[in-house]
């Protein structure tokens, strides 16, 4: 069993990490109750979803740490949840601007800069796109497709894995793992690109709502949950991370990734509580929205 294979320092580390996960869950529950009571209903669910990203990843990592055979399912659960959070973050920026109609009026003559990361940061020759209802639709579609297609691809991967056709180590062109991974990577880049385009346009307007620290936390979750885990798994597959009996290189890499994620997501949960709990004043409405026909009547 797992507990029998651990020495005293190992058991102490597992206990500390489990405690950190439980604290992160309690902090999120307390924050969710506060948001439910204090935040308007139009923004309530979006902010709760975004704040739940770090505790959910921490919880799935803790389960995978204690039950190694569940790692594939816990990683996929965290991946599905984070795909939804990316779409919610884009919607939060639109809501903070006053909604889609108000955003279009604020930036009536503005343009989106699409030469930004992670897709086109080097393509400075790309044209600036006018901000219209259609371009907003494409940005929302860019994140929504990820929230829809990633769960479908993950479900397909699990079905193929149970049938023995999906082997994560087998990256040959004849196997499905390579093609599914490439397709998921392309969908991820499109979703992150849409969020980056919107953030670049509204970051100055929403500076009073601390959008820059919020975006930084979101970026940290992306880097730690996606890039860090992928790098560790590649190192483990190439035997760069040495085996430590009874753990193989891959199992040890999985443990390292999960333990790092628990500590990192705990810190992000605490910082998110501080940032999202502040009370921010609503933006002043644009002149074209605030000005009504009745306001132009002369005072007797």
Quickly give the structural class.
mainly alpha
> Which band does the percent of strand residues land in?
under 5%
Overall mean pLDDT stands at: 81
Low-confidence stretches are 288-300
> Helix tally?
9
Q: Please give the radius of gyration in angstroms.
A: 22 Å
- Could you estimate the helical fraction of the residues in percent? 55-70%
The sequence of SSEs as H and E is HHHHEEHHHHH
Q: Tell me the total number of β-strands.
A: 2
What is the terminal separation in angstroms? 87 Å
Shape: globular
Count of domain modules = 1
Largest sheet: 2 strands, antiparallel
Major β-sheet strand ordering: 1-2
How is the topology of this model organized?
Elements lengths: L7 H31 L2 H26 L4 H26 L3 H7 L4 E2 L16 E2 L2 H30 L13 H27 L8 H27 L11 H29 L9 H4 L10
Organism: Sterrhoptilus dennistouni
Subcellular location: Membrane
Main location: membrane
Please describe what this structure looks like.
- The chain has 9 helices and 2 strands.
- It has one domain.
- It is an all-alpha fold.
- Helix 1 runs antiparallel to helix 2, helix 1 packs parallel to helix 8 and helix 7 runs antiparallel to helix 8.
- The C terminus is likely disordered.
- The protein has a two-stranded antiparallel ribbon with strand order 1-2.
